Amino acid sequence: MMLSDGALEKLIATMNRHIPSARRRLSDLLEEDDPAYLGRDGATYRISREELLMISSLLDERERKRLKLPILLMTDTSYPGGAWKVVGEVEVKAISKVVGREPESEGELRLFYPHLLELRRLLPTATTCLYMP
After folding, report:
1. For residues 75 and 61, what is the distance between their CA atoms, to the nearest angstrom?
2. Contact by Cβ (8 Å): 25, 65
3. What is the pLDDT of residue 126?
4. pTM assigned to the model
5. What single-letter DSSP state applies at residue 103?
6. By the 8 A CB rule, do 101 and 114 touch?
7. What is the predicted pLDDT for the residue at 2?
8. How many domains does the chain fold into?
9. Above 90 in pLDDT, residue 36?
10. Which of 60, 74, 92, 125 suits a disulfide with 109, CB 3.0-4.6 Å?
């Protein structure tokens, strides 16, 4: 069964309703008693302090001010067979250290399913999946 373009767009929008309306800086979240962000769906999503501290330990002070959370794990439809990717210099540095994989290029890291599983296990509240056609 094929979906029309409109139906596909609607499906993807529904799958991405949890995406943040605005991503928050790690340095700001570390200062809060109850770190969280607001999703496009209007819900509040909390980020675990333990996850914030783990990510913080991988970065220097300047990078903590630049990293925005949650880190988006995006579908990468350009890769044959499918994959996921992280985009952004600081985001790639942090995630690369967590999964123990070097990036293919500066500012972009391709992830495969085992990496995604590991990331979601270690950083379930500090990362979120973004579905792109």
Report:
1. 30
2. yes
3. 98
4. 0.88
5. -
6. no
7. 62
8. 1
9. yes
10. 92
Are 89 and 63 in contact by the 8 Å Cβ rule? The answer is no
| Mean pLDDT on 104-121 | 92
| Average pLDDT, integer, range 52-70 | 97
Pairwise CA distance, residues 111 & 41, whole Å:
27
Q: Is 21 in contact with 40 (CB distance < 8 Å)? A: yes
Is 87 in contact with 108 (CB distance < 8 Å)?
Answer: yes
Do the domain assignments include residue 10? no
| Cβ burial, residue 34 (10 Å; 0-12/13-18/19+) | exposed
Query: Which candidate, 118, 125, 108, 96, places its Cα nearest to that of 29?
Result: 125
40 SS3 class: coil
Q: What is the mean pLDDT of the chain?
A: 91
Residues counted in the chain: 133
Domain that holds residue 36: 17-130
Instruction: Give the strands of the sheet with 108-111, arranged side by side.
Output: 108-111, 83-87, 71-76, 127-130
